[in-house]
Amino acid sequence: MDLHLRDRVALITGAARGIGLAEARALAAEGVDVAICDLDLETATQAASDLAAEFSVKSRAYACDVTDEAAVAGLFADVSADFSGLHILINNAGVAGKWVGALVEDTSFENWDFMIRTHLNSTFLCTRAAIPLMRAAGFGRIVNTSSMNVVGGGRPGNANYTAAKAGIHGFTRVVAKEVGGAGITCNCLAPGYVETALIAYFTDEARHIITSQNPVGRFCRPDEVAAAAVYLCSEQAAFINGAMLNLDGGKREFHWG
To answer: Is residue 253 part of a domain?
Structure first.
């Protein structure tokens, strides 16, 4: 199936590795020129070079703190100038690890604020910057990254993460209503546990609990998330707007003990 994505321009945040890199590769395979944004410029630069060589597309790397308003404005100005526009934005940048695990009564404001800024504020800042460029192009696809915790109700110890991801879901719904008439759609993905460096700290016991309770019996793969993102970016998905697509194998709540 031709997804009619060739010669589009995409910007993906947090794309030097993991899900973001898988999304960049999947889009490049469809002929999309890709701007890779990441705090790790060295790794992002290598990723961009690899994409350009493998798929014969234009790809460049950009270092940007997507929680910083001025930095985001500069990023989108640079990408628009370098690629002569923008059609696709995937808001993928995020963290977990040491920033989650504490009950609400034990969560510092620093941890709470960091998670909200990294996930929700960055999604707002990048989306706001992208919309005028997409309006000018007459085409736009915004794919945000939520979480299965939003539909599963979260779990003790990750209130900051779940609140940020729930905010992204609500934000997606509103943006979809605001831009749908301009040929722009805004949707979000809600992955379950994905096999990336973000879950490398999981113990063998935790991994067994998760996989044994999931109907599919394993973790999600980055390329599976990427495939869903690419479809939402396609011409065929033009009537999918404001949706949240679950990629959790059918399991959103886990019993931990």
So the answer is: no
Distance CA 127, CA 238 (A): 18
* 109 C-beta neighbours (distance < 10 Å), count: 8
- Domain boundaries, position 209: 9-247
Identify whether 229 is part of a domain: yes
Cβ atoms of residues 167 and 120 within 8 Å: yes
> Which residues are within 8 A (CB) of 38 and not within 5 positions of it... i.e. 6 or more apart?
13, 14, 15, 16, 17, 20, 44, 61, 62, 63, 93
The neighbouring-strand residues paired with 246 are 190
The per-residue pLDDT for 96 is 73
Q: Is 193 annotated as catalytic?
A: no
- Point out the catalytic residue in the list 161, 193, 201, 231: 161
The domain that holds 200 is classified in CATH as 3.40.50.720
Could you report the average pLDDT of every consecutive run of 10 residues in the chain (257 residues)? 90 97 98 97 98 98 98 98 98 80 89 95 98 98 93 77 95 98 97 84 84 90 97 97 94 66
Question: In this structure, is residue 96 part of a structural domain?
Answer: yes
Please indicate, yes or no, if residue 82 is contained in any of the structural domains.
Answer: yes
Domain count, the chain: 1
Report the amino acid identity of residue 100. Answer: V
What's the pLDDT score for residue 230?
A: 98
